[in-house]
User: Fold this.
Amino acid sequence: MGGGASSQLKDASPEQVQETFKTLSSEEQKKVADALALIGQNSGDAPTPGLSEEQRTMLKAAYADIDTNKSGTIEVSEFKSVMQKMKVQLTDAQIEGVFKRADLNKDQKLSYDEYERLVVKGLYEA
Assistant:
């Protein structure tokens, strides 16, 4: 991923993160806050990349919210839209690159499993 977005997220201050989440709807904010709280509760000194069923349920709800056309998959335009809402500072080409790497079966869509792998990798990547 080139480290650019990853280091931006790691270096973000709490105020910057709060400002980013203010752009989300109250329902989206609650889902993200609940998911982060669960991740915090379940992470020890050596976090494992697995998710609890409760975390997976929350992740599925977030996936459904991103899938705005309700096709059952996330398309690059939907992925770009959510990245922009979260004010992730990546160019369209960088966002497309992340999307293409996450699209394991190369069908130009993210299935739930591909999305989950992307999120878990992002959470536990050093």
